[in-house]
Amino acid sequence: MPPPKDVVKIAIQMVGAIPQLIELQQTKPLASVLKDVCDAWSLPNAERYALQYADGRQTYITESNRRDIKNGSILRLTTSPDQEAERLYIGIQSKNVDVKTDSLKKLASLSQDVTFAQEFISRNGLKQIYSIVEEGNDTGEMLAHTLKAFTELMEHDFVSWENLSTIFIKKIVSYVNMNAVDASIQQLSLSILENMVPTSHLLFEVVKKEVTLDRLLTHLQVTNAQLQLKAMALLIALLLSATEAERRDMMEYLREKNIRQFIHKNIIHSSEPLGDEMAHYLYVLQSVSLNLCEHRMKMSMDPYSQEQRDLLQSLRQTAFESESDVPAGTFSTERRRSLCAKEFRKLGFVNNSNPAEDLRRAPPGLLALDNMVYFSRNTPNAYSRFILENSSREDKHECPFARSSIQLTLILCEILHIGEPCSETAQAFYPMFFGQDHFFKELFCICIQLVNKTWKEMRATQEDFDKVMQVVREQITRTLSLKPTSLELFKTRVNALNYSEILKLRQTERLHQEETLAVPVLALREKLKPELLELIRQQRLLHLCEGTLFRKISSRRRQDKLWYCRLSPNHKVLHYGDVEEGVQSPPIESLSEKMPKVSLPGDSSQGSELCVSWGLETTAGERWSLQLPRAGARDAHPLLPQFCLWTDGLNVLLGKEMTSERTQTDLDVLLSMELKLRLLDLENISIPDDPPPIPKPPSNLNFCYDFSHAEQ
Question: For the ELMO domain, which residue ranges apply (predicted)?
Answer without folding.
Answer: 307-480
